[in-house]
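Tokens as discussed.
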């Protein structure tokens, strides 16, 4: 018996059922782009209400580092608010959910564990875009609606702020 066969007999490793590429892709959604809202996430299967769709690990920007640096960069439109003024940048697909005023995905900001979870808040048909609610003050044209002007004190207050655990 060759050495490799002995090792294989001692600790058999089941062959992978999917290619590495398939295993790295999300299961229930895919990313697509359009000219109006850029990249977004779309259901590839029927997603039942309450399904955990994604957990995004996050990078922390303290309130001070946000105020001094991040708010002056493209990150301003990607950061999620924490109740203490800190901000989280969602990694993975967490920053790709677009906004809808009747969202089909709810999110929870978990400052302690530095993650954000996204759940279907109703049943979502295959092909539908997965959207969250950013808040009342939008900084982009939403279906032709007038944009709210930001005041300096309020800047960021309603952006991507939802429920913090
Ligand atoms: C958190 S990012 C979402 C991902 C973004 N679409 C991308 O390609 O990076 C927020 C940005 O997406 C765009 N966006 C999100 N929801 C939108 C909507 N309903 N209509 C138009 N643009 C939207 C805006 O440009 C906004 O600044």
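Sequence:
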């Amino acid at each position: 018996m060759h050495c490799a066969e002995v090792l294989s007999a001692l600790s058999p490793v089941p062959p992978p059922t999917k290619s590495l590429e398939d295993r790295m892709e999300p299961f229930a959604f895919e990313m697509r782009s359009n000219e109006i809202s850029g990249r977004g996430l779309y259901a590839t299967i029927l997603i039942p209400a309450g399904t955990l769709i994604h957990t995004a690990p996050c990078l922390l920007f303290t309130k001070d580092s946000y105020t001094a640096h991040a708010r002056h960069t493209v990150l301003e439109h990607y950061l999620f608010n924490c109740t203490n003024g800190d901000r989280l940048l969602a990694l993975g697909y967490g920053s790709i959910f677009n906004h809808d005023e009747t969202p089909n995905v709810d999110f929870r900001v978990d400052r302690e564990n530095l993650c954000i979870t996204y759940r279907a808040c109703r049943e979502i048909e295959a092909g539908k875009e997965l959207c969250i609610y950013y808040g009342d003050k939008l900084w982009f044209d939403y279906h032709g609606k007038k944009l709210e002007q930001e005041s300096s004190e309020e800047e960021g207050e309603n952006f991507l702020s939802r429920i913090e655990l």
